[in-house]
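Journal club prep — side note

Before the paper discussion, L.F. wants everyone to see what a predicted structure for a comparable chain looks like in token form. Sequence:
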Amino acid sequence: MSSCRLILSSVLAILSAVPAAAQQHPSSTFYHCQNETTLEIDSGPADGLTVRYGPSALSLHRVPSADGLRFTDGRIVWWSKGRTGTFFPDAQSRGISCQQGPATQLGAAVILSTDDQVPTAPVSLSLGDDVTFQLPVQAGTGYRYVLRGATNPSVLQALENSVVPPQQIGGRSRVLFGFTAAHIGSTALQFDLISPGRETTETLVYFIQVK
């Protein structure tokens, strides 16, 4: 029998502008992250880029990745696919989830993760907010999360899904499901963890309210 848990992380709302130095790079892409960090990604040659955050500017080179784009300087790692990314400040870090947005974040970048405590109330979003469901699975086991459906599909508009590969052998991958709050209303999303034998071993239900 599958278990049912309702799991949600704290909501991150980022409303601060990037440092003035970032304005000197009009071709840059900005990501707003779970720990209230804003990253500026300045693409260089096809095999490299520069990551700027605070006073730091780090040059990274591209390395092979099973999914998405992965860059490193041998210590930190930047991984991205579509409008989502994960920043690893060091080899021991589990990674910081990030969402692409404007230089000044107008909406909230909301990260929902199974690493945090069970919530006591539905998540409240505003129109235009981006929300990412971050669900970890043990790499190489064949287990996977699937979205079974939403009670009110029009409330959230689905973005591209992606998978963050594990940092270490035997580590956990992270499946990222992205959405944008498209309409006012309430909805519930159900994610099932499916075994290699196609059995549902766990069910996660998230309640969302867009105001």
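L.F.'s comment for the group: DSSP finds no helices and 18 strands in the chain. Keep this in mind when we get to the figures.
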